[in-house]
């Protein structure tokens, strides 16, 4: 067995509120893992499991949590019970008046080792007495503190007043020094927390006006070592905070509302988001050490073919070609500027990436720079393409190892290489998802409108078919389904003896509801109205019409939520356009679902 020396006394130093926490946080202690337990987050589409561990210095032990970016070390068996680790980066928060160590980064020194020492609980609960020296503590054993909640239920409390006075700082500064809460640990169940985060993206102020009034908003993307979260300010909070928050700077932020993320409006990988209010506190971090840096998870350009359409990814490449500034008409009738860049990398693939709005107008680098893109969206135009949007981030010639390596390769001869573009006939996850769907005939709604305007075909005699990819913006709720005959699917009418079908000339105890939905859809060019029937409705609502109508009759509030969940979904539509006397352009459509939209 290897001779490993644990950092004696570190557990008690972490518990002792009078310790110099700058020194402790930078100590990189060597510790042993005594126990590993998986803790599930609340259910939902973005559920992420966490690992609760117990760490020991050979004399005492503490409860701890692994940051989610370290989950793979447990999942892949690299670390487990009795492993020896060096904790390179961590934070320590107060949870139910006890210290909880959150491990942000670590090195595995010994995978399998015998238990070292007979550690006692560094924070015994009153009446527990000494911890058992013969038994490894378990996350819920009597020797440990009161059960530590999962990430979704952790709450922090302010540092002790005595420690604040010793530090000679204000209450908020004390929190910033000692009780910084990790972004990935935020949930609606915390009341007192402070995060230290970098603003990686800041939107312009946007305004709206509808029947309920007028307003304005802006949003930011915040990042620390553990993850990202989106923050949004409305109305008065815009006036208070817009000028305070600057892209690229680091801030201490507290007293914002943690709420469930509206996934139709964000691609940030977090089940929660922050709502900024007038009393939200924002203070710029002047400390030049331990600042959050942007974390990338780069995908090589050759690997884009393995991603589904609308996936969000990070890429880095050399900008080999810069297109001219152009424009298109958006679905809201506004003119939006665009510019296309051609990226290449060491995989000898190339891809087109589209910049929009100010990003397109302000781009002026013509000397083949290395550019890192965070959070761009994958499209399938021309096989594979990329597009930036409001929450994406672009960094030109970043000072990171990947950029230096790419620059060296390109200048040493990579610029003379032949680069392969993605073709439409790719395989992989996206190809499987759209099997049987002819993407080469996909049209934008603007192209469809132009085609119909210029056609000489009599649509009443010969319908026109087309394929389009669009996002659902609105579904009319009034007549989302109709009571149908279980035999012939014709509409039935309720009478004294049941539900009567005139075609079959018989009555039924209850009808078989079928979808007939009218929806507004949109793509990047414009909006259109589609009409769909039962097959399409079952795909869109993920349930038969009978089930949806049961919800409507029993709980109108729940029914409204189900309807809201359809907004923002993206599908591939196969449509038939036929001219009718009551509606010149009525689209019968059969729905075929593509990847779920992340915008």
Notes on the protein architecture:
This protein has 599 residues and is an alpha+beta fold. Helix content is 16%, strand content 35%. The protein is built from 13 helices and 32 strands. Strands 7, 8, 9, 10, 11, 12, 13 and 14 form an eight-stranded mixed beta sheet that branches. A hairpin with a 2-residue loop joins strand 25 and strand 26. The longest helix has 11 residues, at 401-411. It is found in: Nucleus. Pfam families: Rep-A_N, Rep_fac-A_C, REPA_OB_2, tRNA_anti-codon. Component of the heterotrimeric canonical replication protein A complex (RPA).
Strand and helix layout:
Layout: H1 10-15, H2 21-25, E1 30-39, E2 50-56, E3 60-66, H3 71-75, E4 84-95, E5 98-110, E6 120-121, H4 161-167, H5 171-178, E7 194-202, E8 206-210, E9 213-223, E10 228-234, H6 236-241, E11 250-254, E12 257-260, E13 272-276, E14 281-284, E15 312-322, E16 326-329, E17 335-344, E18 349-356, H7 357-362, E19 370-379, E20 385-387, E21 393-396, H8 401-411, E22 420-421, H9 429-433, H10 445-454, E23 464-475, E24 481-484, E25 493-495, E26 498-501, E27 506-508, E28 512-515, E29 517-522, E30 527-532, H11 534-541, H12 545-554, H13 556-566, E31 570-578, E32 586-593
């Amino acid at each position: 067995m290897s001779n490993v020396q644990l950092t004696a006394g570190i557990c008690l130093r972490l518990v002792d509120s009078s310790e110099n926490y700058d020194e402790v946080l930078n100590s990189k202690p060597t510790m042993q893992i005594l126990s590993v337990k998986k803790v599930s987050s609340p259910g939902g589409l973005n559920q992420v499991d966490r690992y609760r561990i117990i760490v020991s210095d050979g004399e005492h032990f503490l409860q701890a949590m692994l940051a989610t970016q370290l989950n793979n070390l447990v999942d892949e068996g690299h670390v487990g019970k009795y492993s020896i680790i060096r904790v390179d980066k961590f934070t320590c928060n107060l949870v139910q008046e006890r210290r909880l160590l959150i491990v942000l980064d670590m090195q595995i020194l010994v995978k399998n080792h015998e238990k070292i020492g007979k550690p006692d609980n560094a924070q015994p609960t009153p009446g527990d007495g000494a911890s058992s020296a013969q038994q490894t503590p378990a996350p819920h054993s009597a020797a440990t503190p009161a059960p530590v909640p999962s990430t979704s239920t952790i709450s922090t409390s302010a540092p002790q007043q005595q420690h604040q006075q010793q530090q000679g700082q204000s209450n908020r500064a004390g929190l910033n020094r000692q009780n910084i809460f990790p972004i990935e640990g935020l949930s609606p169940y915390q009341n007192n927390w402070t995060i230290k985060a970098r603003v990686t993206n800041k939107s312009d102020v946007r305004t709206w006006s509808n029947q309920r009034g007028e307003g304005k908003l802006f949003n930011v993307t915040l990042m620390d070592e553990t993850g990202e979260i989106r923050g949004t300010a409305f109305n008065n909070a815009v006036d208070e905070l817009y000028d305070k928050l600057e892209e690229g700077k680091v801030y201490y932020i507290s007293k914002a509302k943690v709420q469930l993320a509206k996934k139709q409006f964000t691609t940030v990988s977090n089940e929660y988001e922050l709502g900024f209010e007038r009393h939200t506190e924002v203070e710029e971090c002047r400390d030049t050490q331990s600042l959050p840096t942007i974390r990338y998870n780069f995908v090589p350009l050759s690997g884009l073919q393995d991603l589904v359409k609308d996936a969000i990814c990070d890429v880095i490449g050399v900008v080999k070609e810069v297109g001219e500034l152009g424009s298109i008409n958006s679905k809201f009738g506004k003119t939006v500027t665009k510019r296309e860049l051609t990226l290449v990398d060491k995989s000898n693939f190339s891809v087109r990436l589209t910049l929009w709005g100010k990003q397109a107008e302000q781009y002026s680098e013509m000397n083949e720079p290395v550019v890192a893109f965070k959070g761009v969206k994958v499209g399938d135009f021309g096989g594979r393409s990329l597009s930036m949007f409001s929450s994406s981030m672009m960094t030109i010639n970043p000072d990171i190892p990947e950029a230096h390596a790419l620059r060296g390769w390109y200048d040493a001869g990579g610029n003379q290489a032949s680069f392969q573009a993605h073709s439409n006939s790719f395989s992989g996850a996206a190809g499987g998802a759209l099997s049987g769907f002819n993407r080469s005939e996909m049209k934008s709604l603007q192209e469809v409108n132009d085609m119909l305007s210029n056609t000489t075909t009599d649509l009443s005699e010969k319908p026109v078919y087309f394929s389009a990819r669009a996002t659902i913006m609105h579904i009319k709720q009034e007549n989302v389904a109709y009571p149908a005959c279980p035999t012939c699917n014709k509409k039935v009418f309720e009478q004294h003896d049941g539900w009567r079908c005139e075609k079959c000339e018989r009555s039924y105890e209850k009808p078989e509801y079928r979808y007939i939905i009218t929806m507004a859809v949109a793509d990047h060019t414009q909006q259109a109205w589609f009409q769909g029937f039962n097959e399409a409705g079952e795909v869109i609502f993920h349930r038969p019409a009978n089930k949806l109508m049961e919800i409507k009759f029993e709980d109108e509030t729940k029914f409204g939520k189900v309807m809201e969940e359809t907004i923002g979904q993206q599908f591939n539509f196969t449509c038939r356009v036929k001219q009718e006397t009551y509606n010149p352009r009525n689209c019968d459509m059969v729905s075929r679902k593509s990847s779920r939209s992340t915008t």
